[in-house]
Specification:
344 residues; eight-stranded mixed beta sheet; 19 strands; globular
């Protein structure tokens, strides 16, 4: 790991020489990246992941699991633990663990129930197994409280970055089945149900309100902005979307970015919030070992650029001096599939 002190996110432009150069569609590491995050989701432990060497090549300061680390889909914690052990034994991932700090959250398949939420009866046992996999100490607050959400502060000589990892499973209310053909779910009645639950909401608000970081990264396993595809999304609870937007805008937290996964596609979404001088970006990166290969299009009024339906991971390079964040979707052999620069 790089020499960091770890205490445990403008106008839109394309990549240019001030942030990063893309040579022959491959990564050219920028010298001015003060902090680098790599993240991804949807990883089958029994399918070869060809991206770990590419992740390491970007020299990230931290790797963030966005959920679906393994595909367990069981209420047997011993079976889930066994799959996590297989994942840890993969040499390429073991090398990442030895060189880079790893943090993250779960989604439905490693949680144990497809599209599952608060109703999953084995969630407490599954939580402990997840924390074991993440090497969370026995005296960590997550060992006693409900949910796997957590906050991390990274201080460098150039600036400070905060990462707030959410749990969109443990407390999430039941979804509303869709009456439309081709859609699984639809928005429920406004004001009914929750994504985060009361305790986690209070924690998130406190963390954002108190943040003095130059950038604040919020990790959500499911998409926040894209809301018309009929699958899981914050949009199934529209009042919760409004609440998070208001919480972010009123907190005064600087440089807020949302990272998400789940969908087996990658895309950038953007929304302008009242009272904020920069747009809120939702960077979706999914999946690592398998993707929505039959993707032929879906509505997303917030989308920037094209959808990527190829195996990839997400990369963010933060420059504290210029207040720019370079974002890339990277596939095997370091090929850059999509890119974006946001100034804060």
């Amino acid at each position: 790991m790089k020499n960091r002190i770890i205490l445990f996110l403008l106008p839109l432009t394309f990549f240019n020489c001030k942030t990063a150069e893309v040579t022959e569609n491959r990564i050219q590491l920028p010298t001015e990246a003060d902090f680098t995050i790599a993240f991804g989701s949807c990883n089958r432990h029994n399918v070869k992941n060809s991206l770990w060497d590419d992740v390491l090549a970007t020299e990230p300061d931290v790797w963030i699991w966005g959920g679906d680390i393994v595909y367990a889909d069981t209420d047997d914690p011993e079976k889930i633990a066994g799959m996590y052990e297989v994942q840890k034994s993969i040499p390429e991932y073991a090398q990442l663990l030895s060189e880079v700090q790893v943090i993250g959250t779960w989604d439905d398949h490693d949680y144990g129930l497809n599209d599952g939420g608060v109703e999953f009866e084995a969630k407490d046992e599954s939580q402990q197994v997840f924390l074991d996999f993440m090497d969370v100490p026995e005296n960590d607050p997550r060992r006693e409280r409900k949910g796997v959400y957590a906050g991390y502060n990274f201080k460098t000589a150039e600036g400070e970055l905060k990462i707030l990892v959410l749990d969109t499973r443990y407390f999430r209310s039941a979804l509303t089945p869709s009456q439309q053909k081709g859609k699984r779910y639809e928005p429920g009645p406004y004001g009914e149900g929750t994504v985060l639950g009361e305790e986690q909401w209070a924690w998130l608000e406190k963390e954002l309100n108190a943040s003095e970081a130059d950038f604040n990264v919020i990790v959500s396993s499911i998409q926040f902005l894209s809301n018309q595809h009929g699958f899981e999304t914050w949009g199934n609870f529209p009042h919760e979307v409004d609440k998070l937007k208001t919480t972010v805008a009123q907190s005064g937290a600087k440089g807020v970015i949302i990272l998400s996964g789940d969908r087996h596609i990658s895309e950038f979404s953007s929304s302008t919030l009242e009272g904020m001088s920069y747009p809120l970006i939702d960077f979706t990166s999914s999946g690592l070992t398998h993707v929505y290969s039959s993707y032929s299009g879906e509505p997303n009024p917030y989308r920037l650029g094209e959808v990527v339906a190829k195996k990839s991971f997400g990369l963010l390079r933060f420059n504290f001096k210029t207040r720019q964040v370079g974002m890339e979707m990277i596939s095997d052999q370091g090929k850059v599939l999509n890119k974006l620069v946001q100034e804060y």
